[in-house]
Amino acid sequence: MVVVGLVLAGLAALVHVYIFWLESVAWTTPRARRIFGMGPQEAEATRALAYNQGFYNLFLAVVVVVGIVLVAAGHLAVGSALVLAGAGSMVAAALVLLLSDRSKASAARSQGLLPLLGVVALVVGLVA
């Protein structure tokens, strides 16, 4: 189950790298505007905020990836702690998004389901 948790958390990290790209690199492009449901003026007005938020998503992904690498290198406790911290933060951010704006339920699900499943599988694998 540990491996399943790491794979799911790794996939969640990939999703968050994609979110980073959308928010920090492609924010004002037609694709990103369509995904986030905004026009050109709104995208330009929120560009700096999105840039910062994108890096937050990237840093969460990095924490998860470093944790996975450490587990693979035989450092189960430290690596698992990093994976749980990174993926757990992803889940918490998805919950904040959902609770702050119910219309963002689909986005919250997209960013929160994989890390949630990863956390559950990893914890089950660690306690079993």
TrEMBL record:
Q: Which UniProt keywords apply?
A: Membrane, Transmembrane, Transmembrane helix
Q: Does the keyword Hydrolase apply?
A: no
* Transmembrane segment boundaries: 6-28, 55-75, 81-99, 111-127
**Pfam families from the xrefs?**
DUF1304
Q: Which domain of life is it from?
A: Bacteria
- InterPro entries hit by this protein: DUF1304 (IPR009732)
Quick check: keyword Ion transport in the entry? no
Stored PANTHER family: BLL0914 PROTEIN
The protein, known as: DUF1304 domain-containing protein
